[in-house]
Amino acid sequence: GKSVIYISNFISDYIIERGLATSQKKIDKIKETAEFELKKKFEHVKIMFIHETKSDPRLNHALNTGKLIYIPNLNENPDPSLEEDFNYYLENIYKNDISLSSRNRYIAEVLAPVTYNTVIPYGYVQVNSSQALSEGMSEVCRRMAIVIDQLLMKNGIFNPLETRFLVTDMSRSGMGFVFKEKKFIRYFAEKSRITYDIMLPTRKKAVIG
Length: 209
What we know:
This protein is α+β, with helices and mostly antiparallel strands. It has 6 helices and 9 strands, in the order βααβαβααββαββββ. The radius of gyration is 20 Å and the shape is elongated.
């Protein structure tokens, strides 16, 4: 007989945003915990998620690239390896953040995306300092972003779809799968990010995202 392949544990940025929007109390507690820890090391801490703001240059960066930005010292020319990030930060983030640029108080920043299962970005951790920041401090921030995602998952904020979808086509150009109910269409909006498990005929599982 023909081998059948399914996908399961399907989750998209739509499901993530909806999960966050309906769990504000739990989220506030997790934020509080993370902020408390970070404030032991950094003067200014901010944690934002996709449902809390729409026109935020830091969030746009996190969602579009999923990459950490490390600005060790605005008053010094950056290391060549950080130059691209440095210029992008000045032009797109610092310039648009009046509270930061008007005070001239903080000279360093780390911006770490918060990412579902390391696949779908949905928020960020921002820390600022009036002193130069070492690379070790950017690692502290990156790790906290991972911890936040783990805490949100542990608290059941995100619920992957329980439905299994039958895979009809699998090739280099993409993948096709079948769903019988119209309600699932909203999870497949253009440009939306998704992750899921593929259940192979051998009973092996592969995580795709």
